[in-house]
Amino acid sequence: FAINMEQLVLEHELGRGNYGTVKKVLHKPTKVAMAMKEIRLELDSTRLNGILMELDVLHRAVSPFIVEFYGAFFVESCVYYCMEYMDGGSLASLCCFPNGNVSLPPSLSSSPGSAWTSSPAPLAEEHLGRIASSMTKGLAFLKDHLGVMHRDVKPTNVLVNRKGEIKLCDFGVSGQLEKSIARTNVGCQSYMAPERIKGSSPSSSNVDDAFTSYTVSADVWSLGLSIVEIARGKYPYPPETYENVFAQLSAIVDGEAPGLPDDDDDDSSLTADVSENGDGRPVGRKWSPEARDWVRRCLIKNADERATYPGLLAHPWMKMDAERNADMADWAARAIEWRDRGRRGFAIYE
Ligand code: ADP
Predict the structure, then answer these.
(1) Nearest to 250 by CA among 196, 200, 194
(2) Cβ–Cβ < 8 Å for 95, 132
(3) Boundaries of each Protein kinase domain copy (predicted)?
(4) Which protein residue has the closest C-alpha to ligand 1 atom 21?
(5) Nearest-atom index, ligand 1, CA of 67
(6) CA distance 248 to 198
(7) What is the pLDDT of residues 24-52, one digit of tens each?
(8) Dihedral of the alpha carbons of 22, 27, 28, 29, in degrees to the nearest 10
(9) Are 6 and 25 in contact (CB under 8 A)?
(10) Which one from 152, 170, 219, 321 is the annotated catalytic residue?
(11) Tens-place pLDDT, residues 80-97
C-alpha cells in the first residue's frame, strides 16, 4: 500500500539534518509510529516521480540492521520519506560529544548527588563490538542484496532503539535524489576515505564524477572512523577552521590513520566518572588487541589493502562478539537516560 499525508498525524520534531527535518508521525490506518523525513527539492513532478520510483527498491531493504522503509510520497516540491521510528535516536547523540568534553559545568558537576554524573553510560567493549558487527552486517546486506553502497556512513546515520538494536539509515539508493541534494561536502566532519577526498575536485559541479570514482571500500573507511569516534567519544581529526579550511582533509589524506585509544592514552575524552560501571569495574577503556586490529584494517589508507565485509565478519573480534551476549537494551536505556539528563542539565545551566 502507498502512504500519503492524509493518513499521518504529525507529532514532534525528532531532529534536523543537513537537508530537511525529521518528525515523529502516527500512521492512522496501522497505528504504527513512524519517522518522517521532509526533503525540500526544487524539482518538477516528473523528476519527483523518478525519485519515488528509485526509492521503491527500499521495500526490499528488509534486514535487522537497516531502518525499515515504509514508503515515500511528495507534496508540492517536498519528498516525504517514512521510516521505522527509532526511539533512541542516533549513535552520535548517545556516544559523541561535539567538543569531546562530556564533563559538566563545574557548578553542576560538583552538586552533591547529581544523578547525571553518577549514572553514566559507559561504552564497554562488548557494546562497541555489537555496534561494529551490526553496522558491518547492515553494510554487507546493502551490498549483497541491493547492490548499493551506503555512501554516508557516520554516527548520525546509525540509529538505536530501546530494544538495543543498531540500524543504518540514509543510504544512497536514489541517484537522482543524491544529485538533487548534493550531499557531498556538507557538514564539518568528514568521514570520506582518502581516495574520495583525492578523487573529488571541490570546484567540480559534476556530482556523478564523485559517485563513480570510488567503491564500496570507501564505506569500510567510514565504518572504521565511526567506530573510532564512538569509542573515543569525539571525532578523531582536527576541526576545519577559518584559518585552515583544509586542515581536516589534509590530515585524512596525509596523516596517520587514527585508531582505538591506548589504555594509557588520555586522548579518550571520557572523564574518570564514566570509566567505571556500577560495580566499580573499569569498562570501556581497555580495548582488546582484536578490536584494535579490526579497526586498523578498516582504516588502511590504501583502498586495495583495506578490509572487505567478509574479511571483517570473519575477523576474531566478530567471533568474540557472536559468542558474547552483549546486553544492548540495558546499554541503550542507560545511554538514553544519560543523554536526556545531560540535555535537561544543560538547559537548566543555560
Ligand atoms: P543528517 O542529515 O544529519 O543525516 P537526518 O536528517 O537523517 O540527519 O536526521 C536528523 C536527526 O533526526 C537524526 O540525527 C536523528 O536524531 C533523527 N532521526 C532521523 N531518523 C530517525 C528515525 N528513523 N527515528 C528517530 N529519529 C530519527
Answers:
(1) 194
(2) no
(3) 8-318
(4) 35
(5) 23
(6) 13
(7) 999 999 999 999 999 988 888 898 999 99
(8) 160
(9) no
(10) 152
(11) 999 999 999 999 999 887
